[in-house]
Amino acid sequence: MAFTIKVNGTDRSVDVDEDTPLLWVLRDDLALTGTKFGCGVAMCGACTVHMDGQPLRSCSMPVSAVTGEITTIEAVDGREAKAVQDAWIAHDVPQCGYCQSGQVMSAVALLRENPKPDDRDIDLAMNGNLCRCATYVRIRAAIHSAAKALEA
Ligand code: FES
Ligand code: FES
């Protein structure tokens, strides 16, 4: 069946089954491989994208249920995204990197909602993003740095 979804500012048409997860549409049909597959059951956060700016587990969203504009790691931008990306580099956050696009998408969404998160806010917003390399301490520090940069 044909679906048109808006991804990274452009309408994209795909011909897939209606229950195809958005993750596979992004990766297999649109070649946007920055979004990763981890658990496939909305437990690890590796597949996080934004729908109308809100974080969304793309592995568990059928393409037929997509109602808003999708943004992936390839196109996330704006003040918060720049602050998060700069802080990620400054704190040398990624280890293997596998979980990191999902982590960045969740961190950007958090800072858009809450520009001055405390540790608890960060833990709550990020606890659905798992990291097998255990970069959690650096992630928290980087989010605080990004928040500080956004104050300027
Ligand atoms: S792959 Fe989607 S949450 Fe794990
Ligand atoms: S950096 Fe390796 S899984 Fe998170």
From TrEMBL:
It comes from Rhizorhabdus dicambivorans. SUPFAM superfamilies: 2Fe-2S ferredoxin-like, CO dehydrogenase ISP C-domain like. Transmembrane segments: none annotated. Keywords: 2Fe-2S, Iron, Iron-sulfur, Metal-binding, Oxidoreductase. The keyword Oxidoreductase applies. Residues 1-76 form the 2Fe-2S ferredoxin-type domain. GO terms for molecular function: 2 iron, 2 sulfur cluster binding; metal ion binding; oxidoreductase activity. Pfam families: Fer2, Fer2_2. InterPro entries: 2Fe-2S-bd (IPR002888), 2Fe-2S-bd_dom_sf (IPR036884), 2Fe-2S_ferredoxin-like_sf (IPR036010), 2Fe-2S_ferredoxin-type (IPR001041), 2Fe2S_fd_BS (IPR006058), Beta-grasp_dom_sf (IPR012675), Diverse_Oxidoreductases (IPR051452). This is Isoquinoline 1-oxidoreductase. The keyword Oxidoreductase applies.
